[in-house]
Amino acid sequence: MEYAVVENGVVTNIIVASEDYIHALDGEAIPSSEAQIGWTYKDGVFSPPIVDENTKQLSSTKMAEIDAPVEPVKEQQEKVD
């Protein structure tokens, strides 16, 4: 069975354990097959994080820069006299 480990209302880990598992880590283990790390948990409901459109745009711009091809560096030839 999958459990979402929730600390302060945020999923911090996903674990797989038997139904009689006694949770010994920080946070609370809540059965869930849909929750993901970073999701929130409030009033018995898991929700994905809210993504700010400006941050999302910045992230995609940064990713484009990271994924841009890099020109090969030409090695300098030694002069032979």
UniProtKB/TrEMBL annotation:
Highest taxon of source: Bacteria
Start and end residues of each stretch annotated as Disordered: 58-81
Chain intervals with Basic and acidic residues compositional bias: 72-81
Protein name: Phage related protein
Species, as recorded: Bartonella grahamii
